[in-house]
Amino acid sequence: MSMQMLRKGLVAMVFFSFLLLAQPSQAETSEDFNDLNLFFYGDLDSGNGNISTLQPTSDSDTQSDCPQEANRLSWPGQDRQWTSVGSWIVDLETPGSFASGEHMFTIWANSTQGTVEDVQFRISVTIGGGTADAQATSQSKTITDSAEEATQFEISFDLTNESFNQDPNDNDQLEVEIEYSGGDPGQNPVTGGQSTEQIVILTSSIEHPASISEVTVNHFYADFPIISIEDSAERVAVSVMVWSAFGTSDIDSNEWTLGVVGASSGNQGYMADFNMKSMQNGSYKASFYWYYNDAQAISDTYSFYIQAKDIQNNHWKVFSDQEIYLVIHGYEIDNVISPGNIQINNQTGISKVKAGNSFTIDITVSAEGDPLVAYNPIPVTVIWISGSNEIVLYETAVFATPGASASTSFRYTFDTNGEYLIKVVIDRNNVVIESNENNNVAEFILVVAEPEKEDFVQSLIDEVTEGGTVTLLVFVSVSSIVLAGYFATRGKEEQDFDWEEDDDF
Known about the structure:
By secondary structure, the chain is mostly beta strands. It contains 3 helices and 35 strands. 5% of the residues lie in helices and 49% in strands.
């Protein structure tokens, strides 16, 4: 059958990964670390110092005054005096972390009046509040107003794996405080008067781009509020919200890539078509369409990733925490469950257990239809009907192609005696179009008797002998089932363990 002919009969169905025990959609952080240059802006005299990833484009400097009382050493002790010039601060808008490493802070200073000897600067770097995460001091240099060029200072400092905004209630900042100290000899303020020399810090210009270079950081963040099938258009619609810790100005809004990766088929290079973008609440929202038939995609479990670009040409990839099952059937399919396919403690027709003792329910489902259906996930749900309430005891997915069957098993305990109506439903949300929708439910009454005084030795034996044929599958993630189910289907034969009826066992 040609691809063109196949498409005529395609019915696309999607159900979200409740089978993967998925939580409600949550934004995800990129796993990428990239080197950033952070630039310093604003007049510290007025307290508006800020930090940005934007490189300065202005020819004009911003000048911040260094306190004159720190021009001289102390008197009479002749010790250095440190005085704060101010701080540069940026609100970090996403979770992320700074990698461990050595970094270089660069600043320029000039004199607008007089000469100050042995000038030093000291910085304190704080991520998230509290005590400083790094502190370092520059070399000593003499600054004079007769100099034709500003004097450059470099300060090397270390950071050790500093995370930020790991708690939703955090409102972390990056703060860099700078202090000034001059080395002129200390004088008696009565006889020597006050120092009148004036040192200024220069920032915000092309010539003097005060900065921290090559900070290794992880900070891009994305959410996928919409991942939905549009079967009439044979496409998946995806909307993505993208944040940078340094705001929307850090995001290159002209480059967007949405990739698609199959759990079984891997990364085949599928790309969605860009639709549109807009700015919303400190983020960019971008929308895409993935035309899965045009891509000749196979039935598989798919996840999506957004690849964004920042203004320093770094790329950031963020995967969706939500997967979809895209099942493409061009043929007839019918999934079947019956009471005879259910065993309690490895016995068919026995539905009596004791209160307080765990028991095993083994479930076998089968598939009928066209054998050319090569990928057929079957959702299985076990429900306890309590009055008007439906209580889900267990959910999973098994895989069976037409002509085959598959089994799953789980253990449960009822603490109170009584009669319990148990219903096993396949395709509970009716996402698979079947030729017969009336054979998807099997129910039975489970009688829970009064508990007996437990024999410890017998209990251990029961734990082994009543475990069912595939109890351990409960602990297998559905992600693993998806992978295994794509490459191989399970036959009707199940491996049973036969235990001899021996009172001396």
